[in-house]
Amino acid sequence: MSKQLNKVKKRLESRRREIQGNVKQRERTAPMLVHKHEDAREEPDFYVEPGSFKSTPPLKKGQDHFLIRAMLSVCIFLIIAIMFKTGAPQFEGVRQFVKGSYEQEFQFAAVANWYENQFGRPLALLPEPRDVALGDVNEEEPEAEMVYAVPASGQISEGFEQNGRGVYIETGANTSIEAAKGGYVITVGGIDDEEIGKAVVVQHYDGTESIYGLLNDIHVNMYDHIQAGHEIGTVSTNEEGRGVYYFALKQGDQYIDPSDVISFE
């Protein structure tokens, strides 16, 4: 009996060893499996909440144009500054053009008149323009726009032939001076001419300018829009106690004889 048990045990042990040997053989012959890098799924080291990093919103079209214009303006300013700083002779023409642009008065009245002709009066913010004082001329006549109202009646004490710029008129004391034509006030107080004292310059729709000098009081302000006949100020008084004022007309840089378009008496 014991001999049979020993035989069974030996068979079982032999079978177990055979099975273990087969398993080891399979492990040696099986290929090694290597995971590719792209197949790896690794968790990030930190967590980013969605929407925490917001992209900068793009600039609007109007803002783009504004920035471009601003940059161009700065570039032009720097170029002009360099031209004036260097003093190179080849830039002399540009320098003279820039100087002339700054020294020349902007034609406010002419631009306003063009705007009104093209688009109409802007919500009646400005008074209705009138080139001449009421009752001076027939406004239906074609020549009416060339007629100037009399600032103040009187006698010519010094004519255009004597100074080549304007006329001096003697009138009554404390007489009011009125605008000869409608336009914009572009100068108040003085025009670098001591002979005419306190003065007012009015720019008209046709590009001309009227100058009123030797004023005692001034009743208008800079950039006022005035009509023909609007009170500008009062005359000053001479040594004889009579009122006196200066009047001139300009077309660009050229003076016009006021006696050709106005009868002061």
From TrEMBL:
Enzyme class label: hydrolase
Alphabetic keyword roster: Coiled coil, Hydrolase, Membrane, Transmembrane, Transmembrane helix
A family per Pfam: Peptidase_M23
SUPFAM superfamilies: Duplicated hybrid motif
GO MF annotation terms: metalloendopeptidase activity
Membrane-spanning intervals of the chain: 66-84
Protein name from the UniProt record: M23 family metallopeptidase
